[in-house]
Amino acid sequence: MIPPPSPSALRQLTDVPALRAQVRAWRAAGEGVALVPTMGALHEGHLSLVRQAQAGSRRVVVSIFVNPTQFGPNEDFSRYPRVLEADLALLTEVGADAAFLPDVATMYPPGFATTVTVAGLTDVLCGPVRPGHFAGVATVVTKLLLQALPDRAIFGEKDFQQLQVIRRAVRDLDVPVAIEGAPTLRESDGLALSSRNRYLSAEERRTAPALYAVLQGVAEAVRGGADTAPALAEGRAALEAAGFAPVQYLSVNDAESLAPLERVAGPARVLAAACLGRTRLIDNVAV
Fold first, then answer.
1. Does CATH place domain 195-286 in 3.30.1300.10?
2. Choice among 40, 46, 127, 215 that is catalytic
3. Is 133 a catalytic residue?
4. Helices and strands (H and E) in the chain: how many
C-alpha cells in the first residue's frame, strides 16, 4: 500500500482550470492521482472507494456533482439528497486530497451539444426503464475523466451496469484512465449501502434486505448451469410477496456483455431493480 501523504486541508476545487492545475502540480511532484466520481450524500460505501483509491495512488480527488442529465423527468433529481457540508467533513476525515465541486454551468455550459452513448450494454436492465440515463452517465463521467485525467478511477460494483458502460466508453474512446470496480458494501442484514436508502420508511427498511436474499437464492440455483427461468420466476414472486412493486427486472446476465442468459456457463451476475414505496433499489451478486 502506498503510504498516505502528510495531512493537509481538503482542497475544494470548483472549476476545471483549478482541478487541472492541482493535478498537474501533483504529477510534477511524481505523485499518482485517482478519481472517485460521486453525486454526494456520501456514506461508508463511498468512503470504501476512497480507501481503495488511496491504496494505489498518492493523491485522491472526489467529485461531487448531482448530474441532471442522468435523471428522467419523473425521477428524484429535485429531492436527491444534497448535504455538502457533511460530505466535506467525511472526505476530510478519510483523508481525501481534493473535492471537485462543479456546478451545472461548469459541466454543461451554454450551447453544450455532445452526448456519449454506449450501444448494446444499455439496451437491457436499467436501460429500457430509464431512457437516457446511461447517456447522461457516460457523458458526465467522460467529462470528469478528461477534466481530471487521473491514472485510475474507482466505481462501486453495486451499479454494475453503470460500471460496465463506463468501462466500454473508456475503452472505445481511448481515454487513458484505468477503471476499477470496488466491492459492494452492505449493512449487517445484507442491504447494499446507497444514498437513496434514506428515503425508506422504517417498515420499508425492514423489508429491503429481501432483495439481496432473493439475489443470493437465484445465484445459488443457477450456479450449476440449471435453466435460469424457474429461479427467476420464483425470485420475482418472492420479491412481490415481500412488498416490492413494481419489480422492474430480475435477470441473470453475462458479466461482460450483459446479455441475458438461459444458462450460466461463465462469469455472470444476477441483477435486480425493484421499488419499495417511492424508493427504487438496485443490487446484484456474482454467479
1. yes
2. 46
3. no
4. 10, 9
